[in-house]
Write a structure and sequence with these properties.
About 30% of the residues lie in helices and about 20% in strands. The protein is of the alpha/beta class. Among the domains are: about 190 residues, Rossmann fold (3-Layer(aba) Sandwich); about 70 residues, Ubiquitin-like (UB roll) (Roll); about 70 residues, no CATH class. A 5-stranded parallel beta sheet has the order 1-11-10-9-12. A 5-stranded mixed beta sheet has the order 14-13-17-15-16, with helices on both faces. The protein has a 4-stranded antiparallel beta sheet with strand order 2-8-7-4, with no helix packed on it. A hairpin with a 5-residue loop joins strand 7 and strand 8. Helix 3 packs across helix 4. The chain is globular and about 65 Å long. The relative contact order is 0.18. Bound molecules: iron/sulfur cluster (SF4) (2 copies). One iron/sulfur cluster binds next to helix 10.
């Protein structure tokens, strides 16, 4: 199933043993709603690519675990937001996230009673078409957990429209110190594989391909065992495991397209159209299966809390948990004089107020790193930044051009190709922060690239009133319907679930 070839792009960083730094903290399935049990959560209405959702609760309302507290307005590119704790809404106001996003946020004080919605339980006796399955994923508020937070349902619809053949599952987590995806595979390999199979069928793909580092033998074995369990139930799907070299930033879709298909995607070119493939993060697939099978909306996630200043942890936390409460839980992490970074230490953002900064749907790691003073000198033309740039750019040249206001020339030099990986700043012996300048210039191009998803989002949108008729004490999931009648459910796009032969997804 796994071929002998090792795939990779060229250049980048070799992270070596750094990646093994995080240690796995034990947790059990029974307490999956809160491994860390915060005193409050701050739920931003925008944790995804798109516009903010609209709060459906008001101050003083009581909410339960799994309850929807924010919904998209009709015609907008957004996903619903759900609470991972029970308690009272204490505040609704605008906050500014470390990445500069200003969004309404709902603060909920935890009553520590763990009251959850009745509907948050394993689904039974259901039959769903592929479009209904995609609708459940949308109403579960699922967005890409490994990157920009693109709404998963929109990406699935686009893949379906483009008639993709390969369904790629990104298990390549390569950021220094971050192992949350790897823990997801180790703890819930069946869920990752089943979510991938269900979504692969929903988009009509014929092959399910798991991409994983050659060094991750334990996780590869877990995936193989899970695939063997369900192979007979998904005879229409081929399975493959592709091994990649350990390198940063392995896993970005343009680098995957280059490594697997030998294609250099231009800006705005999609992997769906050019390679007939679609790429999803493995934690996103886990979330999809939780929604489809167990009626669990996206309300918690695994976060690595780690860094070079201490040991490492992986915690299952309700989304919205303040970073300070994660750090309190990781008692071996002394953060007095260290930098607390929202994200990984190469591309993350240093935060000053961990008590007011929440974990969001795309937060895979909180890094605590030693404060080091790098002496800043002019460029010494060592060429290290060019040697490591995965997009084959000359960061020092582009940086100079941008400094001199030569934007057109910087663009011609390829600046818009920058994927903000942070490698050039990391290796620069002169301490020059190349990434911030180049990545923000490239940002405009990347917005246009992702906007192509907007084309296919409105077909099944509900109005705010329709959403509101579901919410209250609802997670949105239990009553999901896109109007498909029973005949349609028997159509060829329905998916039979394994383990329970009468189920269709
Ligand atoms: S220029 Fe951009 S893509 Fe190249 S190394 Fe720097 S941050 Fe990464
Ligand atoms: S790594 Fe730093 S010092 Fe070396 S060429 Fe690039 S910008 Fe100049």
């Amino acid at each position: 199933m796994a071929d002998r070839k090792r795939y990779s792009f060229y250049r980048g960083l070799f992270t070596g043993d750094v990646l093994n730094f995080s240690k796995r903290s034990p947790f059990v399935k029974e307490i999956m709603f809160e491994r860390v049990y915060p005193t409050k959560i701050i739920l931003p209405m925008k944790m995804h690519y798109g516009v903010p959702a609209v709060p459906t609760v008001k101050v003083g309302d009581y909410v339960k675990i799994g309850q929807c507290v924010g919904v998209p307005e009709k015609g907008t590119f957004a996903v619903p937001v759900h609470s991972g704790i029970s308690g009272k809404v204490t505040n609704i106001s605008e906050i500014r996230l470390p990445n500069g996003i200003i969004t309404p946020a709902v603060t909920i004080a935890n009553d520590m009673k763990r009251n959850r919605l009745e509907s948050v339980r394993p689904r039974s006796g259901f039959k769903l078409t592929a479009s209904e399955a995609i609708g459940i994923i949308r109403d579960a508020g699922i967005c890409g957990m490994g990157g920009e937070g693109i709404p998963t349902a929109a990406k699935l619809r686009r893949a379906r429209t483009e008639v993709v053949k390969d369904f790629l599952v990104n298990c390549l987590q390569s950021e220094p110190y971050s192992t949350s995806d790897l823990v997801a595979i180790t703890e819930y390999p069946d869920y990752v594989v089943l979510g991938s199979c269900a979504c692969a069928r929903a988009v009509g793909a014929s092959k399910c391909i798991f991409l994983i580092s050659e060094n991750r033998k334990e996780q590869r074995q877990s995936l193989l065992s899970s695939i063997e369990k369900i192979r007979n139930d998904f005879k229409d799907l081929e399975f493959e495991i592709k091994l990649f070299r350990e390198r940063f930033p392995q896993g970005y879709y343009r680098l995957v397209a280059r490594a697997l298909y030998g294609k250099n995607l231009a800006l705005g070119e999609t992997i769906e159209k050019s390679c007939k493939a679609v790429l999803f993060n493995c934690s996103t697939m886990l979330a999809c299966w939780e929604a489809l099978s167990d009626n669990i909306p996206m309300m918690s996630r695994i976060v690595s809390v780690t860094g070079d200043a201490s040991g490492g942890h992986n915690m299952l936390v309700p989304i919205g948990t303040p970073v300070s409460e994660l750090l309190m839980n990781a008692q071996d992490i002394k953060n007095g004089s260290d930098r607390i970074v929202w994200g990984n230490c190469l591309t993350g953002i240093e935060i000053k107020e961990p008590e007011n900064t929440p974990v969001v749907k795309t937060t895979s790691v909180i890094s605590v790193v030693r404060r080091t003073e790098v002496p800043r000198t002019p460029c010494i033309h060592c060429g290290l930044c060019s040697e490591c740039c995965p997009m084959n750019l000359s960061p020092n040249t582009i940086f100079e051009m941008l400094n001199q206001g030569l934007r057109q020339k910087a663009s011609e030099e390829g600046a818009r190709e920058c994927i903000a990986c942070g490698s050039c700043s990391y290796v620069c012996p002169a301490g020059i922060n190349l990434t911030t300048a180049i990545a923000s210039f490239a940002g405009e191009g990347r917005i246009i690239e992702v906007n192509s998803l907007l084309d296919n989002t409105s077909a099944e949108d509900k109005t705010l009133e329709e959403y509101n008729s579901y919410v209250g004490e609802a997670s949105l999931l239990e009553d999901y319907s896109d109007g498909a009648d029973s005949d349609k459910k028997k159509s060829k796009d329905s998916i039979t679930l394994p383990f329970e032969k009468d189920k269709e997804v």
